[in-house]
Specification:
By secondary structure, the chain is an alpha+beta fold. It contains 14 helices and four strands.
């Protein structure tokens, strides 16, 4: 539940190397209890325990959010952390901003947060040639809206780079991928979090999220490309998608990318009612059983993202 006075943080974005420049609170019985004062450090053993038992229970005061963001930026530019550690820090700190995107009543602030998330990812990718593979390896395989949006954003940046997008275009693609499901803000939470397949009425409601998303974005200064990511990511190259049944030639290239990364993440993700596929199984399924639904050239490029990752894993 959104609390305007506090900002949720991931415990893994902190470490025992850090002198924490803000007060940290822990949620106990729906109350925020002061746990660590500014200037103190976490104990390694405590961090491990909290990651296991209470990883979602840590908060800072809302007025300390800028201090937290500066603290994360300093860690990402430090030589004290490995590429893998920086990827973990970046992913975990981004999760807090993604949560705000879906929970905050102020959509404008949340959209600005999405820009910052993609800025951080692109800077990391520019600084570290292994950034994409490190981030992909950290994919949660947990189909929770926040995790899903973040993973689709990461996959889309990786695929976009392979396809030759860069600079402002890649930034725009990343932002669009990150907020592609923003329309789910308007779908009842019981449908979003349901354990099991949706019934017909629930599915009809869920299928409206592209329209809801477009309605949200039309109230803000957002590019047409980003709007297309939100409105067209469930269209397909066969012209049988929703909500418009667009022919493939009319689907925005960014939406074609997100159609692939969105489906890929869904297929490789653990849910209560299905067993996740391996990355290679998922792509083969999309190329075989779902043949014709995706841009063939883009789908082939997704194999390149996967095989580059596998090559790096073998070399490491």
């Amino acid at each position: 539940m959104y609390d305007k006075d506090f900002f949720h943080i991931q415990i893994r974005s902190l470490s025992s190397k850090d002198s924490i420049p803000f007060d940290v609170y822990i949620k106990i019985n729906d109350k925020k209890v002061h746990y660590l004062k500014a200037g103190d450090k976490f104990d390694d053993n405590k961090i491990i325990q909290f990651q296991t038992k209470a990883s979602e229970s840590f908060f800072i005061r809302a007025e300390d959010k800028l201090t937290y963001k500066s603290f994360i930026q300093k860690k990402l530019s430090s030589d004290d952390f490995s590429s893998h550690e920086k990827a973990q820090i970046l992913r975990d700190s981004s999760m807090s901003l993604i949560e705000e995107l879906f929970e905050s009543p102020t959509v404008e602030d949340a959209l600005k947060g999405s820009q910052q998330v993609i800025d951080n990812f692109m800077n990391f990718m520019d600084d570290d040639p292994d950034a994409v593979s490190q981030l992909v390896k950290l994919s949660s395989h947990d189909f929770y809206t926040y995790n899903h949006s973040l993973d689709v954003g990461i996959y889309s940046l990786g695929l976009g780079r392979i396809l030759g997008f860069s600079g402002d275009e890649l930034q725009e693609l990343g932002e669009g991928a990150l907020i592609h499901d923003i329309g789910k803000r308007q779908v009842h939470v019981d449908i979003i979090t349901k354990d099991g397949p949706l019934d017909e009425l629930e599915w009809l409601q869920m299928r409206k999220h592209p329209q809801y998303g477009l309605q949200i974005l039309n109230d803000f200064d957002v590019s047409n490309a980003i709007k297309a990511c939100c409105f067209e990511h469930h269209e397909n190259m066969m012209g049988t998608g929703y909500p418009q049944k667009l022919p493939g030639s009319e689907i925005h290239p960014f939406a074609r990318i997100i159609a692939i990364t969105d489906t890929y993440d869904a297929l490789t993700t653990q849910r209560t009612y299905n067993v996740p596929m391996t990355p290679e199984e998922a792509l083969n399924f999309m190329k075989g059983k779902l043949k014709g639904k995706y841009d063939e050239d883009f789908l082939e490029a997704m194999y390149s993202v996967l095989f580059k990752l596998k090559a790096k894993e073998k070399a490491s």
